[in-house]
């Protein structure tokens, strides 16, 4: 049986999973509307995709220490005892349901299933007869963050529906959609949605994203019409002019009040509208957005925002005072790039996905506690907290997407995208168009080592292509099958077409490039090291011998950087096994030894960490 899920703000593409009848609660649904613009990458989990290794461990920790530990009463209290204690308190249950549903589809964890079923049913108990599912009193409805709350209701309900097929979830989502359609619009008697949300209306108009999901699930054209109204509303008096501003300026910092999370949430919705309509103006908006953020407003760790807003070109303050790298922005940037990769198959978008996952996304969640930092600085102690915030709910949604991105069908070819240990089962089509089961076992110590073995298991010999992504940071890449060696350059896809036999093995080898990255306009004279996809940081709790206020480090030359594995220097309670020591020259012709760890691991014990290491110059 084929079961497919919506990846909420990421994609409305489907997931194929084989389940026994005992695992099924109800019959899962299939969306009624397909995209007009074809997908080059099918954002779907295979029948089985069990990650281990570095990413797999962090994915499991997200389940154990964050999702299973959520404050159920705190997430639901605002619905059961209106009004909520915070204006946006209602967003959290939808974010939880989305992350939980996507995670359960991968793990089939019974504890998670029981928890999300319980919370789903308790949420539905509070829905009004008119479809209202917010946390506001009747006299205050559709003010402040009320539409925003319903946006996340929709994400959670539709993800849950896609995972378990419970028709009550789709009914509840449809009731919300009908209520929004009947409440807002530019016809007589309807409210102006711009006046029902913060940040020049962008908080409310970002409901365009799940409303397009709802259109796909139901086929009801009024939801598509509602989203067309939202795009028109951008240009109403006092509106954010998202489309017209980006088409004119090609800069996101010139849009409305430059609020990054809300704006990107709208633009992800515009990506889906493009996929449903083929509107070329929207495609231009999407491309200009990517080009501008990636070139001018992106931190080296794959996030954006300073005080929650897009700033001027290359203005990238990275300490705690800048309130940089809001977790919600990190997750939405990941979702945006995932959409673009799905549309185009272009590896430039995947490079951003990889950068974000390995660095700022994982860096925002403490692997020891499951707590999340709202803003995650590159310089300073990461302020991990477990109290309910938008980012505590958003970051797990991003981590839940990882198994949708390590392997998949790219240009209709099974493709390994991340070199993380994995057990994968999927059905594929052979060159003769026969459908057969395929099992892949990827064994590797990456990111520590640049070697991997991919074992192919089949019921019978068959000819078909397999693709291997060659990362942009991988050099001397080779893949050898039965004595035949294939070579490829960085940032390419290596396609191997052959008559595959059961137990065939591909031996993969590549060098993991180490780079010195300059601090740029904001931190001239400072540097960091990047090894493969990982940005390194200096955690001062691991370097008590170094006084960086008085150290006179000299900007290193590439040839002088030699990394030595030093995991034995990590404390016993440290989560992670990657650590490297290196010597940096000082201005008085001495050597200063420093210990570096991945930024995603740094500050987990409360240490002050630095990505940008200051020097006296070259």
Automatic annotation (TrEMBL):
Annotated Gene3D superfamilies: 1.50.10.20
UniProt-listed InterPro entries: 6-hairpin_glycosidase_sf, Beta-AFase-like, Beta-AFase-like_GH127_cat, Beta-AFase-like_GH127_middle
Residue ranges of every copy of the Non-reducing end beta-L-arabinofuranosidase-like GH127 catalytic domain listed in the record: 85-399
Residue span, Non-reducing end beta-L-arabinofuranosidase-like GH127 middle domain: 425-511
Gene Ontology BP terms: carbohydrate metabolic process
PANTHER family xref list: DUF1680 DOMAIN PROTEIN (AFU_ORTHOLOGUE AFUA_1G08910) (PTHR43465)
Name of this chain's protein: DUF1680 family protein
Species annotation: Sphingobacterium detergens
């Amino acid at each position: 049986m084929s079961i497919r899920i919506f990846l909420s703000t990421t994609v409305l593409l489907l997931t194929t999973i084989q389940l026994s009848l005992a695992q099924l609660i109800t019959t899962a649904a299939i969306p009624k509307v397909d995209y007009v613009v074809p997908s080059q990458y099918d954002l779907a989990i295979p029948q089985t995709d069990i990650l281990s290794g570095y990413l797999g461990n962090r994915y499991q920790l997200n389940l154990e220490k964050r999702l299973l530990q959520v404050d159920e009463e705190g997430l639901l209290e605002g619905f059961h005892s209106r009004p909520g204690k915070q204006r946006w308190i209602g967003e959290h249950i939808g974010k939880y349901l989305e992350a939980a549903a996507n995670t359960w589809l991968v793990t089939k964890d019974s504890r998670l299933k029981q928890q999300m079923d319980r919370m789903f049913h308790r949420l539905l108990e509070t829905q009004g007869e008119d479809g209202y599912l917010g946390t506001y009193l009747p006299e205050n409805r559709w003010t402040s963050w009320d539409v925003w709350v319903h946006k996340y209701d929709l994400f959670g309900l539709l993800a849950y529906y896609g995972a378990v097929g419970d028709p009550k979830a789709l009914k509840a989502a449809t009731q919300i959609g009908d209520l929004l359609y009947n409440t807002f619009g530019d016809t007589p008697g309807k409210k102006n949605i711009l006046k029902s949300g913060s940040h020049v209306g962008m908080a409310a108009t970002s409901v365009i994203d799940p409303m397009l999901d709802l259109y796909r699930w139901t086929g009801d054209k009024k939801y598509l019409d509602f989203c067309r109204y939202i795009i028109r509303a951008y240009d109403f008096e006092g509106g954010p002019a998202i489309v017209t501003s980006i088409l004119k300026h090609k800069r996101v910092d010139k849009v409305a009040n430059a609020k990054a999370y809300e704006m990107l949430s709208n633009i992800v919705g515009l990506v889906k509208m493009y996929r449903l309509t083929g509107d070329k103006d929207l495609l231009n908006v999407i491309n200009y957005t990517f080009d501008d953020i990636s070139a001018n407003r992106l931190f080296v760790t794959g996030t954006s925002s300073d005080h929650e807003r897009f700033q001027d070109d290359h203005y990238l303050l990275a300490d705690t005072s800048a309130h940089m790298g809001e977790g919600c922005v990190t997750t939405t940037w990941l979702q945006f790039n995932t959409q673009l990769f799905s549309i185009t198959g272009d590896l430039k978008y995947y490079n951003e996905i990889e950068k974000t996952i390995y660095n700022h996304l994982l860096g925002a969640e403490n692997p020891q506690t499951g707590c999340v930092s709202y803003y995650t600085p590159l310089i300073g102690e990461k302020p991990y907290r477990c109290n309910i915030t938008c980012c505590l709910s958003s970051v797990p949604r991003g981590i839940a997407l990882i198994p949708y991105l390590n392997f998949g069908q790219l240009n209709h070819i099974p493709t390994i995208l991340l070199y993380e240990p994995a057990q994968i089962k999927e059905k594929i089509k052979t060159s003769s168009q026969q459908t057969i089961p395929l099992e892949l076992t990827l064994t590797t110590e990456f990111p520590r080592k640049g070697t991997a073995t991919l074992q192919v298991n089949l019921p019978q010999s068959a000819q078909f292509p397999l693709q291997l992504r060659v990362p942009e940071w991988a050099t001397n890449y080779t893949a050898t099958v039965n004595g035949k060696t294939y070579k490829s350059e960085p940032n390419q896809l290596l396609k191997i077409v052959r008559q595959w036999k059961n137990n065939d093995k591909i031996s993969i080898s590549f060098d993991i490039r180490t780079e010195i990255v300059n601090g740029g306009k904001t931190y001239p004279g400072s540097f960091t090291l990047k090894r493969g996809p990982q940005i390194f940081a200096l955690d001062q709790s691991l370097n008590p011998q170094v006084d960086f206020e008085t150290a006179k480090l000299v900007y290193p030359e590439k040839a002088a950087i030699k990394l030595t594995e030093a995991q034995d220097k990590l404390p016993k309670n440290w989560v992670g096994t990657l650590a490297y020591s290196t010597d940096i020259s000082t201005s008085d012709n001495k050597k200063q030894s420093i210990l570096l760890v991945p930024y995603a691991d740094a500050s987990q014990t409360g240490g002050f960490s630095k990505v940008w290491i200051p020097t006296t110059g070259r």
